[in-house]
Hints:
- The radius of gyration is 16 Å and the shape is elongated.
- The longest helix is centred in the first third of the chain and has 25 residues, at 22-46.
- The model has no long low-confidence stretch (mean pLDDT 86).
- 61% of the residues lie in helices and 10% in strands.
- The N and C termini lie far apart (35 Å).
- The strands form 2 sheets. The chain has a two-stranded antiparallel ribbon with strand order 1-4. Strands 2-3 form a two-stranded antiparallel sheet.
- It has one domain (11-123).
- The protein is mainly α.
Amino acid sequence: MPVDIKFxxxxxxxxxxxxxxxxxxxxxxxxxxxxxxxxAEEMKxxxxxxxxxxxxxxxxxxxxxxxxQKYVEVGPDETxxxxxxxxxxxxxxxxxxxxxxxxxxxxxxxxxEIIAQKLKEGLGL
Length: 125
């Protein structure tokens, strides 16, 4: 149950990254992974803790590509994913505690800044 993030307004930076080919792809992967790791840490702070298993399972994947779009998945691993859905969305007997959504909403501007900064660093800007 990863969080899906899409950013607007970074067209110029992304165009320059694409012009670099493989080197640009590595720069882009690094930027996405760094931002994903930041979000994972923030998500852990919001996660409810009973045993700590759910919190400790939150990770960021390496950069992936689907239909030409690069992304990282951030959230609990397969072992706790099923439980995280109940906590995030609630059940008929349990109120929702949207810890993943809350972490993203609180940090989406910072995530975009991290991506932009890492792209600029990689491009030498």
